[in-house]
Amino acid sequence: MRTKNSIINTFSNIFFNLLIGVLGFIKVKVFVNGLSTDIYSLNQLFYQIFSYIAITELGIGYVINKNLYDAFAKNDKKKINDIYSTSKKFYSLVGIIMFAIALIISFFVKYLTKVDISILYLQIVFIVFIIRNIIDYFFVAPRYIIEADQKYYKINYLVKSIKILEIIIEIALVLLGVDYFFILLPGIFITIIIDIYINKKIYKQYKWLKDTKSFNKQHLKGTKDVVWRYLASLLNSNTDIILISTFINPVAVIVYTSYTYITSFIKDTINIVSSAITPSYANLILKEQDKSSNTFDEINIVFLFIAVFVCSMLYGFLTNLIGFWVGLEFTTSNIILFLFCFSLFQIISEKAVIVTINSVGLFKETKIPTIIEAICNFIISIVLIRKFGILGVLLGTIISKFITIIYNPLCIKKYVNKKNMKTYYFQYLINVIIFTVLVFAFNFCKLNIESVFQWILYVIIFAILILVFMFVVYYVFFNSFRLVIKRLKEYVLVFFRSRKKVVWKR
Description:
Layout: H1 2-34, H2 37-53, H3 60-73, H4 77-105, H5 119-134, H6 141-148, H7 153-175, H8 180-205, H9 223-237, H10 240-247, H11 250-287, H12 289-325, H13 334-349, H14 351-360, H15 363-388, H16 390-411, H17 413-416, H18 419-445, H19 452-477, H20 479-505
Helix pairs in contact: 1-7, 1-11, 2-11, 3-4, 3-6, 3-11, 4-5, 4-6, 5-8, 7-8, 9-15, 10-15, 11-12, 11-13, 11-14, 12-13, 12-14, 12-18, 12-19, 12-20, 13-16, 15-16
């Protein structure tokens, strides 16, 4: 059942994420061409500012999820109701505080950008943008319930369908030449309507779920450690655009966000996979810890495989894609491209560790290194951005990231076997080498791509070649990869045998 739910959750999320990603490509193209450079860079800046306002949430979602995993594993409905009530009150308060903070920040937004826009207009569109993004906080509590129960796929189609509708409406409004203010408004009304509808569906699914009107701080135990870890993670991932907007110019923002749109889309897809795995893996650790060690090895090698393949392909073809998509004027150098790809490699390759940390709730153990990483990232970026621009920002992110890459695996050794750690670091190093070799191979090829058709053809050819190469290398050198292949074979055989039985019965 664990595996089945994880698979359903994963594929339903990936399907919709791909649709949203394709529409997002179109949206960015339309926004870049249909809005002024100032307005587009302003839109990206607002997202970054909102991420900082979202600090108010304090990362409590991690704690709530962890406690709900435990409650569902024990089928403790009373505890689930108590956690639900506590989270409902907490997030309502968060929404109110976020709005108040946004009102204050609106008077200072003008100092974070070099755009030539009226201060009053800047304040108004910022407030509307914030309102649009905080509405969910007043309705989010029931979603934690269905997510912890590994049945989020039952509402996922609604959540994502509305997101798709919202993107389509935004694209249409930009094409019609509507002012940015009015482009933001439909999202507010759509969000309210769909949130009410989704919550009704969840209450129907869990008829025993009720608001006990209680607020038990015990259900938020461990919050202090989560908060610091959350703040540090936020600083790590949401500093770059603010720094670029402040110290460089709006064009640099477009260049950076064009590349990071692709890498963020990939990160979101990977996060979908890791989030789908987390409830099942947490359940495995809680009930059958003796099996968790081998499972970790298999999860880790899969993410390493994905990291090498995806990031090497990005290095080979991302610049061409950006050129066809938003224009050659928004492309950058190979060295910056490599740093974009390597930064993504770092994030994907540590996912097995992150899944374990979130599954077990090792927030206290990972707090300090995450804080140190964030501080180092900010300092290095500030120092280097003035001289090296985007290159300096990326170097700050990459150099500081090694702190948690080295330290965090040590925190999970209790749950994945101490001996596995040497293997983990060795595998990481080998995969860095494989990735670097593939990057050099692309540099050696020097592909001359002049059309979209050529680009697609080369992508297919090189994807096949790299996959074959990687499959052979991983199968020969990594035992955990062989175990994954064996497990996949078993799943396929079981699937086809069950299909044959169904057909025969018919």
